Amino acid sequence: MHIPTDIGRSRTVHCLTACLISCCAIRCGAGDGHTLDERGRPFERPFVEGLGSRYGSAALEPNYESIALSFLEPLCADCHGGGAPSAGLDLTFARAFQEMVGVPSLQRPDLALVEPSAPDDSYLIIKLEGGDDMVGRRMPRGRPARTPDEIDVVRVWIADGARRN
Ligand code: HEC
User: Fold this and answer.
1) What is the total count of domains within the chain?
2) pLDDT for position 2
3) pLDDT, tens digit, for every residue of 121-149?
4) Measured from the CB, is residue 111 less than 6 Å from ligand 1?
């Protein structure tokens, strides 16, 4: 009788441990945004990590969807969104492409916000890098500058033609 009791107890302990591990895995997976993106898809190998956005440490890749969802929306759309976006520029996912690509800047009407295939001539890049030839402040306004690696991802997207997908 002694042995079966012990086995029963150790099974209970095993079961509890397994439950704890799996509960934790489910909670972590659902809650911290590191394993799944906001559409429930698993993140691939991240290009740039640690954006600290509301989407978690989302991958930043040189395509519109990634840049809009993991960079522009979380870092810019609180000002550049809503009913009266700053500088009349809406950088939400639904609007940012048509607001930027081939559209003259308000501050530097001689430059497009995004000039396809020409990142150096794109006012978006000038405002992110804080170049001498910009009007107003470096973006994101009042917040730390973005890293050269992050800005390079945006540069690559523009250099590749700034396509919608
Ligand atoms: C705290 C509010 C705030 C945040 C956050 C912010 N902006 Fe701005 N943005 C402004 C304001 C205000 C202006 C106009 C004054 C200036 O340029 O300093 C502006 C102007 C701009 C312009 C010039 C628009 C034009 O047509 O000439 C660009 C481009 C821009 N922002 C991009 C961004 C990007 C990209 C981000 C995120 C990485 C960002 N901004 C984050 C407030 C903000």
Assistant:
1) 1
2) 52
3) 999 999 999 988 899 999 999 999 999 99
4) no
